[in-house]
Amino acid sequence: MDKAAPKVTITHHPDVRRSLMTQKAYAEGMRSLVLYTASVQDEIAIKEAAGEDAKALHGLNDLLLPIVKGYGSEKGYEQLAQSLQTFGGSGFLQEYPIEQYIRDAKIDTLYEGTTAIQGQDFFFRKIVRDQGAALNTLSEEIKKFLAVGTGGEELAGARDALAKAAVDLEAIVGTMITDLTATGEDVKNIYKVGLNTTRLLLASGDVVVGYLLLKSAAVAAEKLAAGASGKDVPFYQGKIAAAKFFAANVLPGVSTERALAESVEGSLMDLDEAAF
Ligand SMILES: Cc1cc2nc3c(=O)[nH]c(=O)nc-3n(C[C@H](O)[C@H](O)[C@H](O)COP(=O)(O)OP(=O)(O)OC[C@H]3O[C@@H](n4cnc5c(N)ncnc54)[C@H](O)[C@@H]3O)c2cc1C
After folding, report:
1. Which of 73, 133, 176, 212 could form a disulfide with 108 if both were Cys (CB 3.0 to 4.6 A apart)?
2. DSSP type of residue 127
3. Distances (CA, A) of 69 to 118, 157, 207, 225, 246
4. Residue closest by Cα to atom 16 of ligand 1
5. Which residues have C-beta within 8 Å of that of residue 195, sequence separation ≥ 6?
6. What are the pocket residues of ligand 1 if the criterion is a CB atom closer than 6 Å to any ligand atom?
């Protein structure tokens, strides 16, 4: 209310900071997701060159691919819209590149398989047909990371949020398997599965990204403790802040997705097409 107060840049406003940190967390988390998947592919190549069995790693890579494509494209597009919002009216103008990036990024949710198809591939082929083996490998990796308390006290709250989100994710998979099994009794139960496939894909992406952000944050905490200096300090602080922000603001959404998945019912499929 003080008209004489000094002017500040928009990064001093809480909502702008919220939006910027959301963009940073998703951008860095999804970059980690792509690199993590590529590292699994590297491990496959190394094992196969040594004549070793890489079946489990192939399964993990296959599981991660629809997340990279489906989650990456959906969230990339969403965050570009956030970015345009940060630039205000200037962002909307063609003089600035964001509006072009948004249109260019939109094709990613379509042309290598739409998100809905990635969601079906993820559940039916990468989880059900694989009998949950690859999902189990990933979930064990996350549990192992959480068990050793990497990142210390500073990241304890974020680790708890990740542990809870991982349990909620397992529950979504459990609900969908139950519905799939019940298709034998009533074929309409398959519709409940279909109503949850995209939800499962996106919730899985949140959990994996939350995990990878935490892994980066733990390394950043070590670097700071070891005496990082100069520009490295805010760089590592930013990694820790992004992981904590994602854990506090995005991961609790997996509980909501679980509640929605568990309450799904098939009446939508009975509705007359004309009602749409
Ligand atoms: C710029 C561009 C480049 C392309 N390049 C190639 C290429 O190089 N090679 C190639 O093979 N194709 C290419 N495509 C085609 C692309 O693969 C298809 O557009 C894409 O697979 C979607 O199919 P569709 O457009 O027929 O949409 P539809 O299949 O009609 O889908 C429309 C909507 O309905 C949903 N939907 C459809 N079926 C189901 C289902 N069973 N369950 C749930 N939801 C469903 C979809 O998710 C989507 O949201 C390209 C497309 C574009 C726009």
Report:
1. 73
2. I
3. 8, 29, 15, 36, 20
4. 111
5. 264, 266, 268
6. 107, 110-111, 113-114, 116-117
Residue with CA at minimum distance from ligand 1 atom 17: 111
Report CA-CA distances (Å) from 235 to 73, 220, 227: 26, 8, 13
Query: How many A from CA of 117 to the centre of ligand 1?
Result: 9
The residue written with tokens 């609790």 in the block is: 252
115, 198 contact by CB (below 8 A): yes
What does the pLDDT look like over 15-45, one tens digit per residue? 999 999 999 999 999 999 999 999 999 999 9
CA of 108 to the centre of ligand 1 (A): 11
CA of 113 to the centre of ligand 1 (A): 6
Q: What share of the chain is helix, strand, coil (3-state, %, to 5)?
A: 80, 0, 20
Residues of the chain with pLDDT under 50: none
In whole angstroms, give the CA distance from residue 111 to residue 95: 27
Whether the CB-CB separation of 80 and 10 falls below 8 Å is answered with no
Q: What pLDDT does 266 receive?
A: 86
